[in-house]
What does this fold into?
Amino acid sequence: MIFSSALLENAVNEFAKLPGIGKKTALRLVLHLVKQESGEVAQFSETIARMRNEIKFCSRCHNISDNDVCNICSNTSRKQAMICVVENIRDVIAIESTQQFNGLYHVLGGIISPLDGIGPAQLTIDSLVERLATEPVEEVIFALSPTIQGDTTIYYISKKIAALDKSRHPLKVSTIARGIAFGGELEYADEMTLAKSISNRIPVENFIVAGS
Amino acid sequence: MIFSSALLENAVNEFAKLPGIGKKTALRLVLHLVKQESGEVAQFSETIARMRNEIKFCSRCHNISDNDVCNICSNTSRKQAMICVVENIRDVIAIESTQQFNGLYHVLGGIISPLDGIGPAQLTIDSLVERLATEPVEEVIFALSPTIQGDTTIYYISKKIAALDKSRHPLKVSTIARGIAFGGELEYADEMTLAKSISNRIPVENFIVAGS
It folds into this structure.
């Protein structure tokens, strides 16, 4: 692509550094911004710069946060005894958007994946075990990807949890249900999912209570 | 989507204002920026803000430019007697990238499209006629979209050109060739294109010279 303006070219190159944005898309975005009011573009660039400079990670759950402790952790109306363990910040947003979970989170920052060079030390597992040892937690829910890596991570952390001093408090550990997605067609489900959904079958009386 | 951070939410909303970027893509882009070095994000935002504040439109051809007259117009090694009329800046970049055209451009800023409320007054047609009357132009090439609107625009401007004082200089007016795209399959071409490519057929001796 040959540009007649260096300003335009630099802006296109900056956008094209973003994931999934090629040169053509970057050009479309930049030409859109050229047409906008100067104030709106200034607001765009200031919001991005400010976000990067001021954003923090919650010292308790490692979620993205405006303060040292995030809104979720500092919200006293949430169940402090329930921790949902997730892979990343996107998962927190996805679960929050369901408005079905009223406990706290713990963001691992990834899952154990030796092929990608991610071991337990790269994740916030120690911080989670520390929380379980010191906070009045009663239940841990794993909401990790249903993959081998997700299962490995659950297995590794459960071992750590089992090693905790059990005299302190009983700890329920669960993982989110795996099965056929709502609205999904049975015949298109893969074998593993279908097999899991049969072995984890739910008595209909429970199902009706849960679904109602 | 429910965010636990206002900084994150504002940044996502700003990205989601861009065309073709939904909330999920915006979130992906913002989380990517969160992971980048602070300096890189500052550079991103400064480049965008600077581009919007400093960019100009060439007073001669209305192309995007760093100065009052763009690099193309001020390049004396280009043929000043040849003007390629295009719809927008993207078309200039597309034609420049072919490295086959060595004249000047004129960016109309759109094409005549009454249904979209775009008439000749919204375009830089007067400025083009003014250029043809005052500059030593010998040839005008229309490189507009092969649509009814494109054809209408060509017709309208040709009428204006025909009304120019012809005693001054002769003016060749042409439009880019329309036909089957290179590598295209004949059977998938639409009827209009195929019909045009038959009526505008090229003697093989010219074709070989042009293609060699």
